[in-house]
Amino acid sequence: MRESSAKVRHTVFRAGIISTLCFLTLNSYAQISTNKDKFLGNITTYGQIDYGSAAYYTLWNQITPENESKWASVEGNKGSYNWGSDNIFNYAKSHNFTYKFHALVWGAQYPKWFDSSMPVKDRYNAIVKWFDAASKRYPDLPMIDVVNEAIGTHQPGNPLMKESLGGGGKTGYDWLINAFELAHERWPNAILIYNDYNTFRYDTDAFIDLVRTLRDAGAPIDAYGCQSHELKGVSLQELKNADTKIQNALKMPMYVTEYDIQTSDDDAQLTDYKNHIPYFWQNDYCAGITLWGYIYGKTWNEGTSGIIKYENNKNTERKAMTWLREYMASDEAINAKSPFPGMKKEISLYIKPASLKTTRGDTLPITVRATMVEKSIKIDSVQLYIKGKLYATMTEAPYIVKYVPTANGQYDLKAVVYTDSQKTYERLGSFKAVNPRTPFKQIEIPGTIQAEDFDKGGDGVTYHDSNSTKDGDASSYRSDCEGVDVVSGNGGKAIGYTNTDEWLEYTVNVQESGYYTYKAVVSSGTNNSSFQLALSDVDALTNITDKITVPKTADNDWSKYITMTGRTLVKLNVGEQIIRLTITGSSCNIDKFIFEHVEVTDSVNIRMSASPSNGTVGSSNTLTFTPVYTVNQGRIDRIKVLMNGIILTDTIRTRPFRYTFTPTTAGTNTVTAIAVDTLKRESKIASLNMKVRGPYNGAISIPGTIEAENFDIGGIGISYQDDTNVQGDGTGRSDNEGVDIVKGNNGNAIGYTSTGEWLEYTVDVKQQGYYSFTATVSSGTTGSGFRIGLIKDGKETTLGTVSVPQTASNDWGTYKTVSSSKNFHLYKGKQVIRFTITGQNCNIDKVQFSFKTDVEYITADEKAATGTRYNLGGTPVGDSYYGISIINGRKEIHLK
User: Fold this and answer.
1) Which pLDDT value is given to residue 876?
2) Checking CA distances to 166, which of 342, 527, 846, 886 falls within 20 to 30 Å?
3) How far apart are CA 737 and CA 175, in angstroms?
């Protein structure tokens, strides 16, 4: 889903509260399409429904809110809901056509308060609460985009969403499965859709893998949505090839979503419409088409995709719109079939094997989940086919069979449901049978797991490596695995060249039940590396640790290893278990894990606070620890303190229990503390998240240039303020939530700005004196601007203001420079400069600061400053002194 090029404006609709939105009969013949089974829909236009001289309901028979039902739009303030979609869904209901909720989960738009500083459990609960609120407001939604654009990490918030919803897990897509399960629990009769960006041209294989995994895992996904942006000039054959590939792999209902042809050339647009629309519409598996905007100049992609021009208070149809009317009136369009007759869901039908991969010779339970939407229709029987052969006929729910695969390979599944209405329904699925696993070495806990000693069994069974070739310099250590990268490191061997979502499993024999401390010996030559440990069984993963972030141990060098320390989140039970190591952030090397048993007591705990509560790289913070006793008062022996898994100290033994430290890493830092009593028992873990600000990539030298996207690390309210969660198309940053980085001026810029938003930059002024600036900016409207200020002791001193001109009409791609009107003074050394938006909708590429002189020329009126004035010899002089003088560290010159 992509937004308008102008700042998204959220309209508050004063509609009555909807207690229930009944989904009425959808046969309405006032619109362009009169097909009773599939729709030709559209979206809101800048928050409006009717736009132009023709009412919406006279054109389209389906509506999707462009922004109004997204989480960021609804719950911008935690616990406060703005249901701007009420008006939209009421409109659809009153005109008897269908509507879609867009979208429950999207890594590009979610509330600002939902960020990485929140514990994972709290984030998950926040998502559940969001689903609950939407379900309470709209209990009878006909269609829902449950998840939008989740392939890889092409949306900045996807890693955050993924972690919040349970991570990759056993399938690699568990977080998406969890999202669909949450949606199905609340809307069992809605058509649940996964939607992604132009799968006909980009990431087609990744899209197929994602949706097929959801389908085969038994997730309640009913259809897939193929966003159809950027199809300008795509030939019919190219489109057919991609679409056929997707459908042959998935065999599921499909929606054409977000179709637009971005061009001002009427003939070129018409050609694409004629090539694409009939092909889509006349496929039996296509359930409908949603255009992404229709008013020329009022669509997200610079406005040129619109097919109606609204000028002089009347509509003028472009050639594509005129043709579209004619085509929709044809017999081919009117009689085209749909997988959802009446545009409604008739059955929930999903095949759920206990695991997508099972060991050859083991018993695999397979469940067919089948429920009719219309309760008066009864299921007569459910037949399950395995590898094309009928395996079982079931007549009573739950529909469960047990199957034992006797050979390795893929097993195709098909469920056929027969009803007393004489209708049948089908669903496909599959699972894979693989070799049995065997331990590479016998590993006992307490003890050490060497990372290279993962179990034997093969890719997808005991490990997953996304690279099919071995890159490590010690890969000959293991001849039984292809692609896993064993490297030389830390005096032995380690796992290296890691990528996100790769994993390795180890069979261990736990000797003593209880909690364990672990020491992870790791390295990384870059930022944002991380991993997680979990217990693995047939059904799910149980996290042993939170995600553990590996610091950059050396710049672009993986040979320097450090030890990170923590404690298991759950007790390990005696006996044989499987531990999975999952790479959650690429490029970390892992040498080994050392596990030691520890007794955890409830007799003493501690509370922890920090002063100041948030930090700055290079400045001191003091931690204070308060014992909380239940029994054995006064039995604390010492307190251990860690930051991000690295021990700061373990020797705090005297009251008051305090520790002063200086943060060295910007971003959200997790500080943990454990009290140890005299019996060597450990307390529960106390923790706090401290936001630490610091420069993005070192302090910016002045004289020099501030690239606007290189604002300080630290988080919202600390190093920046951003009021919306609209994401740009530029290179996003993993350390911030929601700041809008866009492509512009042959690089990146800050865009989608709102009045009152601000960004801060740590600078290092190399020479004291007077400076000027030149800002490179753009705006598609009037009234845009920002202020440049110097922040000291929480106060701002204005250095200058920038009035951003309208560089092009409704186009932010044209950049111009604006220079300061007067010079300003900067002292030497590190300081913080803030850009504050004073007029919305300006794009800021960069601001160049130029040294002018170490002397300021002033007028007589400007001469009267507070403070003592000195001549160059250091002698105090009065305000009547002419020539060069020094006041408050500044040189000034006043001539007669």
Assistant:
1) 84
2) 527
3) 19
Same domain, yes or no: 615 and 674: yes
CATH number of the domain bearing residue 154? 3.20.20.80
pLDDT in the model for residue 730:
61
The reported pLDDT for the residue numbered 858 is 57
Same-domain pairing of 576 and 661: no
Domain count, the chain: 6
Reported as a single tens digit per residue, the pLDDT across 138-153 is 999 999 999 999 997 6
Q: 637 and 606 in contact (C-beta within 8 Å)?
A: no
Count the neighbouring beta carbons within 10 Å of the beta carbon of residue 821.
Answer: 10
Residue 374's CB is within 10 A of a number of other CB atoms, namely 13
Distance CA 83, CA 88 (A): 10
Q: In terms of domains, do 275 and 412 share one?
A: no
* Digit-coded pLDDT (tens) for 803-829: 999 999 888 999 999 999 888 989 899
Query: Side chain identity at 309, as an amino acid letter?
Result: K
662 and 732 together in one domain: no
User: For 678-696, b where at least 16 C-beta lie within 10 A, e where not — what string?
Assistant: eeebbbebbeebbbbbbbb
The helix or strand, by DSSP H or E, that contains position 241, with its residue range, turns out to be: helix 236-250
* Tens-digit pLDDT profile for residues 436-495: 999 999 999 999 999 999 999 888 889 999 876 777 787 778 877 777 999 999 999 999
pTM confidence score: 0.80
In this structure, are residues 171 and 215 in contact, taking their beta carbons and an 8 Å threshold?
no
Q: Which of 290, 323, 343 is the last residue of a domain?
A: 343
Residue 4: inside a domain? no
Find the range with the poorest average confidence among 338-347, 369-378, 532-541: 532-541
The SS3 assignment for 704 reads: strand
Q: Are residues 411 and 378 in the same domain?
A: yes
What is the extent of the structural domain holding 589?
443-598
324/55 Cα distance (integer angstroms):
17
245-273 residue pLDDT tens: 999 999 999 999 999 999 999 999 999 99
Q: Are both 209 and 296 inside the same structural domain?
A: yes
User: Are residues 86 and 127 located together in one domain of the fold?
Assistant: yes
Q: How far apart are CA 683 and CA 372, in angstroms?
A: 52
Dist. CA 439–CA 434, nearest whole Å: 15
Q: Look at residue 12 and tell me if it is in a domain.
A: no
Same domain for 643 and 736: no
